Structures are given as C-alpha cells and as structure tokens.
Amino acid sequence: MSSARKNKMNVLVFCAHADDEVIGAGGTLRAFADAGARIRLVMFSEGAEGYSVPEEKKTITKTRDRETKAVCRLLGIQEYENLRGLDWNLSVNNSAYRAVIGHIREFQPDVIFTHAELDYSDHIAVSRVTREGWFHAALACAMEEHPLWPMVPLYEFEVINRMNAPTHIVDITGTFELKKKAMELYGSQKGIVGSIFQMMEGRALERGYTIGVKYGEAFRRSDYRPRAVRKLTSLLERE
C-alpha cells in the first residue's frame, strides 16, 4: 500500500437512484471531500422511469446521468459509475452481488455507505445486496479478480422513510447549503419528488437538534455481523 493511500480515506457509496446520495448523505460526503477523501459513487439504476412528462422518456437517462456528474463535481465525488439497472427491478442477484464485491475489493474503501434496509422497493434491494457483498468481499469466494478486502464500517442512510434509532448523527451545518444546491441540480426530478426541500430541511433540523447543532444527517452502523470482543473492557469503550 502506498503512502498516498495510507494518508487518504476511501469512501464508497452504493445507492439505487440519482438523488438518493444527496438526500441521504450529501452533506456528509461533501465534508469527507473537504477533508481530502477519495469518494466513489456506484448507482444501480439509470433512472429510465424518472420522467414526469412523456416527452422526456427518450432522453431522461442521459439527462439524469448529466445531472449526477454535475452533482459529483459539486460534492467532491471524484468517481462515478452507473450499473444501468431498471427502476423497480433492482434485486439481490448474482450480477449485483458480484458488482458490489468487485467495487469493494478494487476500490479498497475505509468506509461504505448505502440505503437503510427498512426503506422501500429498490432501496431495500440495494441495501441487502450491499451488505451481502460487503460481507463476502472479505471471504474467499467470487475470487475472479482483486484481493480480499476486510469488513470496514458500513453505514446505512435514510432517504424515503425516517430511520429509527440511528447510531450516528453527523454535523452538516457547514455543508447543508451545498446539499441543497446539489439537489437543485437534479432539475429533471422537480415534478416527481415534490416538496423534497421541505423534507430535507426538516429532517436535517431534527437530526441536528439531537446533537446540539443546526443541521445533521443520520446513519446507522450495520450490525449484520457481530463485532468480536477481544477484551471485556472493550465493551465499555466508545468509538
């Protein structure tokens, strides 16, 4: 591992649709970028059903791809890949599972973000396949390419449904305005997401209130697999 790699945090994000990354973790991702992190966004759907008028049907995927690239520039996300799946058809299958494993082993993240399992439809599928791939990326299976990579911290974010009992709240007071500007770049979705800015503001205020700041984003660290306790005293230690 090079000294450059040691000094730079790698952040990997798996999400279902364009704009999920902004709603769920936009402020936090910008904060990571400001701290010098290398960030990769992997999107499962090309968003072919995300049009509000029939005239947009043939151009919507190119539009959303262009919007996502603009969002990446604003939030400091250096790498972006779309797996070109279909809306309402994302699932936990071999292809998706191997895609997650491949990205984890090749990118070598220090932390991974994805959807909360208790969200809806495509978000649930992406959450589940991410957890499966994250778990198996550390095991000797699906070994066509890239070395094993350990199970680094995996955090779920909230998009549609409010998350119950988050384990972490990140102060995004300094990046919330950029989060809003990023959402504004998804102009094609204004006729679909409705009062999303009202929801984003209210949720950020609520999350911020719980930790004594203006704006916050909520996350839940995955407990898909228990962490080993080597010493009894570690049960009393805080992260």
Protein architecture, described:
The chain has 239 residues and is of the alpha/beta class. It has one domain: Rossmann fold (3-Layer(aba) Sandwich). The protein contains eight helices and seven strands; from the N terminus they run αβαβαβαβαββαααβ. It has helices at 3-6, 20-34, 60-75, 94-107, 121-136, 176-184, 190-193, 196-210, and strands at residues 10-15, 38-45, 79-85, 111-115, 154-157, 168-171, 216-221. It has a seven-stranded mixed β-sheet, with helices on both faces. Helix 2 links the parallel strand 1 (10-15) and strand 2. Helix 2 packs across helix 6 (176-184) and helix 3 (60-75) runs antiparallel to helix 6. The longest helix is centred in the N-terminal third of the chain and has 16 residues, at 60-75. The chain is globular. The model has no long low-confidence stretch (mean pLDDT 89).
